[in-house]
Write a structure and sequence with these properties.
Belongs to the GTP-binding elongation factor family. LepA subfamily. It is built from 19 helices and 32 strands. The chain is an alpha+beta fold. It folds into six domains: 87 residues, no CATH class; 174 residues, 3-Layer(aba) Sandwich (Rossmann fold); 93 residues, Beta Barrel (Elongation Factor Tu (Ef-tu), domain 3), CATH 2.40.30.10; 62 residues, Alpha-Beta Plaits (2-Layer Sandwich); 113 residues, Alpha-Beta Plaits; 105 residues, 2-Layer Sandwich (Alpha-Beta Plaits). A six-stranded mixed sheet has the order 4-5-3-6-7-8, with helices on both faces. A six-stranded antiparallel barrel has the order 9-10-16-13-12-17. Strands 22, 23, 24, 25, 26 and 27 form a six-stranded antiparallel sheet that branches. β31 and β32 form a beta hairpin. α13 crosses α14 and α17 runs antiparallel to α19. The structure holds guanosine-5'-triphosphate (GTP). The site of guanosine-5'-triphosphate has 22 residues, from α6. Guanosine-5'-triphosphate (GTP) binds next to α6.
Length: 701
Amino acid sequence: MAVIAARLPLRPACASASSRLACEARCQPGVAARPRRSSVWAAAAHPSGSWLHAGHGLAPRQQSVSMCRAALHTSSTRPPAAPAQAEAEAAPFDALPAVSFSIIAHIDHGKSTLADRLLEMTGCIPAGVGNRQVLDSLKVERERGITVKSQAVSMRWQGTLLNLIDTPGHVDFAYEVSRSLSACQVALLVVDAAQGVQSQTLSVLRIARARNLRIIPVLNKIDLPAAQPDVVLAQLEDVGLDVGSGGREEAISVSAKTGQGVEEVLARLVRGARTHKEARRQDMRALVFDSWYDPYKGVVALASVYEGTLRKGDRIASAASGKTYEVLGIGVNSPEPVSTGVLRAGQVGWLMMNMKDMSEAAIGDTLHHAHTKVEPLEGFKPSVPMVYAAVYPLQAQDFPKLEDAITRLALNDRSVTVARESSAALGQGCRLGFLGTLHLDVFRQRLEDEYGQSILVTAPTVPFRVTAQDGTERTIASPAEFPAELRAGHAELAEPVVRGTLMCPEEYVGSMMELCAEHRGEDLSIEFDEGKSGKRQVRMVYRLPLAEVVTDFFGKLKSRSSGFAAFEYEDDGYTASDLVKLSFLISGTPVDALAVVLHRSKAVATGRAMARKLRDVVPRQQFEVAIQAVIGNKVIARESLKAFRKDVTAGLYGGDYTRKAKQLGKQKEGKKRLRAVSFGRVQIPQEAFLSVLNSRPNEGK
Ligand SMILES: Nc1nc2c(ncn2[C@@H]2O[C@H](COP(=O)(O)OP(=O)(O)OP(=O)(O)O)[C@@H](O)[C@H]2O)c(=O)[nH]1
């Protein structure tokens, strides 16, 4: 009977230095030790029977034992399990029935907090340290309190293996959500009991249904005074879930913060576990759903084994490339990586192979034994960028380092597209494609946090399409690619549009219609729905240009509806549009990094706003600087930055007026000369660029 040791729970338990050292040495990944009395005790004392410190089978010193016991007891409020159950729980993990599940929800509804509680109750992490969000390991995730990357972790509960895949909540990370759900059988749909069903709740629900997952609705935050579980249950029924008592998708009320009701979630998951006996007899097929580069271990892939058994030392092949590899290491996360040497059907874990290059660990690829021929599993649709932005180093000579960092990060986040670009003002850079503006912002922060890059990011644009007279089409991802022939009417331009569904309580319908009209929305339908929740809800369908949605639309939607409106959208192709390129000249010299492509109706307001902003941030010179916003040859806005005027007459007391006039004349001459040498070479500091680029084009309204 092998019991696997996890390192994380050790630390608080083994406070004494010597025993901690001994324990840590023995608890290295890969150690599977024969249990002695202490492990039986641990399994009996903890209902999860999970890979806890005292479960590693090595008898710790008396002091550590009592401390471990204390840690184990505090990690769950449940009474000790019965002996028969304890035996089942101490079974090797790969013989256990398993279920893979994901937690899906609207942003901030409490996925990561619920994951923490589940990890605590199953003994993967010690309890009582408060809200840690163990799975949000990236710095950007902790700082912003959002999940960006999916994470996978395996837990034991009552003789069952529960594989949790935590997913991001924001619409920009829907790609990660759909990837993670491919590896699951169950989805815990978390809904904030105070906020109710939101736009992302609906879209993740749709993805989960499309993948035929069993849905368990979880009403979270029931500890909040504003919680209205009945209203939210009615909303869930309104979206077609059978959430009533005894219903197919009976909801569970929990407080992820206090732990109330979380045990019921575990019980429901256990009921859905399967032994995968049949699947384990088949040829091995595993789906790679994430991969990254670890500086110490090389390429690491996260895989979900659908059929068969995958062991360390096996020769495997990639269905996509046909290349073969040897499995050098294999294991699960609990939540620290634990080497198990094997992964069987129904299990999710990491594997290291002798891959030379990150690009070989293609996400969505199927791995199989090299000597077998299998049908590849259904992969993921490649993502299509919705927003583009260019990234430049602050110091031109740092470009090679920046490019290297971008390439590495893009391999970790496969939804980002990368192409080189250069600008006269900013030098060499990269044009990147993202799924939304939050995605862009998170990528920027990860470049800074994880790779120490100092960068400048240009204003986001959407992919416009140009159709030439001969019918050939091309996509323009940057204002620099805006076609000159357009002016002569030799090409047609189209912009991407979305079909957006906006839901809000009736009292906000006026302000929501106004908002959509401001953003060039075309109304398609409007429905009033009584709903079981008692409030009259309005459902409006609009066709909106994507360029309008990716900027400040969501912020305005939330603020004008006091957070009650929900909006979701789907791609609706392209529509012909009167687009123009708005450029900026400083002292007559074009500053290409500031150029934007936008609808003609927005050009004047945006041009004025950006010119004003430039006037505020460009440092004053010894001569007057003209800041102009132009479309083609036409100036649509102009701001002047007044020159510094040194008081050259300050030292003259009294005397003849001609002395003053002489000094002023000399100053005038000097300025003429200065302007001649500095013309077109106004030094604009990087901060000035940053503050202008950070102001979105639509803010000019
Ligand atoms: N009162 C209360 N607050 C909660 C509860 N669950 C989560 N929260 C709080 O809600 C906020 C958001 O929780 P997270 O767990 O980060 O939410 P999330 O859904 O993982 O967010 P993303 O990862 O960004 O999608 C945090 O401040 C939590 O402390 C709960 O049951 N009760």
